[in-house]
């Protein structure tokens, strides 16, 4: 049994303090777990008790006798049942097995007790156990106030009922492909989808002191995630816990008694695990492959995982956003359909500052490639970066569409996460008829091409002189950008701090320059070989 301590709340200063639980990570099979429990009843040593015993002894005419100490120690396996005297008497004397039996475990214990009784076994131990499923225990209720009359709420009872019904539920793990939105979910579906169930097994260790009350001296709980909880924790420092029960003082030791593996067994298990891991690695390697996908030399791969998050401060409700990604010369993509799209129609709600805000959370994914060698072909010294162009449109109940704003934003040049805001604008006209048309029947002045709202990627600069505009709302876009290129593998690992601050284009340019120098040297070598061959022929 191998344990890795996750949390140990035991911080005992005296004998009365520190009875907190210990939580451990159980790597081995829980069936190999063993626990040793020892109790010891201390002799009453007060002067009053000594005087009473001396008077009783003198009245009888016998010398006073000291009360003997009572001690018991037991080693228990996981979920091992140990009967108490009253339990054994009750189970062994049951005439009808169907009487007062609520769990299958109790039926099994009755048969076991009858067999032991027929063999002449009579328990005399004080330490006994309660295993999982022996009794129907309700979930523990933790009061939230100091009122002793507080009872569990109806919501807590409903959640507990759902947890009990969900244990053992085996549904289809495949996600549904149709009707993914449930308009009127049932209570059963709510409990099944919104409650986290952790299947656990509990074992109680109790002490019999001759009273009808059950005295639990230790609780061991094991969850399906491999967490083992021992409450109170093991007595690692050999100092016992002190228990005051019915006027008597008891000492309690709880020790971890699981057998440790020998060196040969540990080595054998490690070799077996290494073989299993090697087999899994071979299967994964066969499925994935050895070569990591890399772009060609001098090419930068930009993976975009963006999100159109919110839109706020627009005039009308029911917004949608048309977007397009423009690629300057030198950039390309494998999927043209990833460069444009339309979001869903979203209604606005009241934000934290009282503004109308629409939450889109619309994902955008695209793989873009930039070839640095094409800069010479297009006659540019500095490459242009892709842009995101957006067009915000509103649509009312009568399907009247209105342009709410245009905007553009250049991609961040550095990889990582970036949150950007796009300030939009709409074209206006000095004619009041356009405003009346926008209000009553929809339709406003709009650009002939959405690419006109961004910076030109090629050609001459377009003039917007004479175009009247006014400010509109704001669109928030979150960028997650990954850069991949062979040039990143050429950086100096000795000065990692300096290399991380180096700009991406500088590394790409250095790699391209290095390849060009190699190309020139290779051409010079071939020319020299041709010259030597020509000289030999002349001689």
Task: Give a short summary of the structure.
The protein has 539 residues and is an alpha+beta fold. It has helices at residues 47-60, 85-92, 104-118, 154-166, 187-194, 263-288, 375-378, 432-440, 496-501, 504-538, and strands at 3-8, 22-26, 34-41, 70-77, 127-130, 200-207, 215-223, 227-231, 241-245, 248-256, 299-312, 319-326, 331-333, 340-342, 349-350, 356-371, 387-395, 401-410, 416-427, 469-484.
Structure description:
This protein has 539 residues and is an alpha+beta fold. The protein folds into 4 domains: 3-82 and 125-139 and 187-256, no CATH class; 262-290; 299-484, Immunoglobulin-like, CATH 2.60.40.150; 487-538, no CATH class. Helix content is 26%, strand content 30%. The strands form 4 sheets. Strands 1-2-8-7-6-5 form a 6-stranded antiparallel beta sheet, with no helix packed on it. Strands 11, 13, 15, 16, 19 and 20 form a 6-stranded antiparallel beta sheet that branches. Strands 4-3-10-9 form a 4-stranded antiparallel beta sheet, with no helix packed on it. The protein is flat, with a radius of gyration of 39 Å. The chain starts with a strand and ends with a helix. 15% of the residues are buried.
End-to-end Cα distance, whole Å, is 86 Å
The CATH class assignment of the largest domain is Mainly Beta
Overall average residue pLDDT: 77
Number of helices: 10
Total number of distinct structural domains: 4
Helix-strand topology string: EEEHEHHEHHEEEEEHEEEEEEHEEEHEHH
What is the strand tally? 20
The H-level CATH homologous superfamily of the largest domain, spelled out, is C2 domain
Helix content: 25-40%
């Amino acid at each position: 049994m191998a344990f890795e301590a996750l949390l140990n709340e035991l911080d005992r200063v005296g004998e009365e303090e520190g009875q907190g639980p210990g939580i451990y990570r159980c790597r081995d099979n829980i069936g190999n777990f063993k626990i040793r429990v020892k109790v010891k009843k201390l002799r009453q040593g007060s002067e009053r008790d000594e005087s009473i015993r001396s008077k009783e002894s003198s009245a009888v005419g016998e010398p006073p006798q000291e009360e003997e100490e009572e001690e018991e120690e037991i080693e228990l396996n996981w979920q091992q049942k140990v009967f108490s005297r009253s339990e054994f008497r009750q189970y062994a004397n049951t005439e009808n097995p169907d009487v007062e039996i609520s769990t299958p475990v109790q039926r099994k214990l009755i048969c076991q007790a009858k067999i032991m009784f027929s063999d002449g076994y009579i328990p005399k131990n004080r330490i006994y156990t309660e295993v999982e499923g022996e009794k129907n225990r309700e979930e523990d209720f933790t009061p939230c106030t100091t009122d002793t009359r507080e009872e569990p709420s109806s919501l807590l009872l409903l959640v507990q009922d759902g947890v009990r019904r969900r244990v053992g539920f085996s549904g289809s793990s495949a996600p549904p492909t149709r009707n993914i939105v449930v308009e009127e979910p049932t209570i059963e579906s709510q409990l099944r989808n919104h409650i986290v169930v952790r299947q656990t097994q509990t074992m109680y260790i109790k002490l019999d002191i001759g009273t009808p009350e059950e005295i639990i001296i230790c609780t061991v709980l094991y969850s399906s995630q491999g967490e083992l909880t021992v409450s109170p924790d093991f007595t690692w420092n050999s100092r016992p816990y002190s228990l005051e029960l019915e006027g008597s003082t008891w000492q309690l030791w709880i020790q971890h008694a699981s057998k440790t593996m020998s060196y040969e067994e540990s080595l054998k298990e490690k070799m077996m695990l290494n073989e299993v891991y090697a087999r899994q690695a071979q299967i994964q390697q066969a499925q994935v492959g050895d070569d990591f996908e890399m772009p060609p030399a001098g090419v930068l791969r930009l993976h975009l995982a963006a999100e159109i998050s919110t839109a706020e401060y627009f005039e009308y409700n029911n917004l949608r956003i048309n977007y397009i990604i423009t690629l300057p010369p030198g950039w390309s993509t494998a999927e043209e359909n990833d460069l444009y799209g339309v979001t869903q129609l979203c209604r606005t709600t009241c934000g934290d500052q009282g503004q109308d805000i629409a939450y889109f959370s619309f994902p955008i994914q695209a793989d873009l490639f930039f070839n640095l060698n094409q800069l010479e072909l297009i006659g540019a010294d500095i490459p242009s970066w892709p842009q995101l162009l957006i067009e915000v449109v509103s649509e009312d109940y009568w399907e009247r569409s209105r342009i709410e704003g245009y905007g553009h934003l250049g991609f961040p040049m550095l990889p990582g996460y970036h949150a950007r805001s796009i300030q939009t604008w709409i074209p206006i006209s000095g004619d009041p008829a356009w405003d009346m048309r926008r209000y009553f029947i929809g339709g406003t002045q709009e650009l002939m091409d959405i690419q006109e709202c961004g910076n030109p990627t090629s050609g001459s600069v377009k003039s917007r002189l004479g175009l009247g505009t006014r400010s509109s709302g704001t669109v928030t876009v979150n960028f997650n950008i990954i850069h991949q290129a062979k040039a990143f593998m050429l950086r100096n690992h000795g000065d990692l701090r300096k290399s991380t601050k180096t700009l991406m284009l500088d590394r790409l340019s250095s790699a391209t320059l290095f390849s060009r120098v190699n190309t020139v040297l290779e051409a010079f070598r071939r020319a020299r070989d041709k010259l030597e061959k020509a000289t030999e022929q002349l001689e």
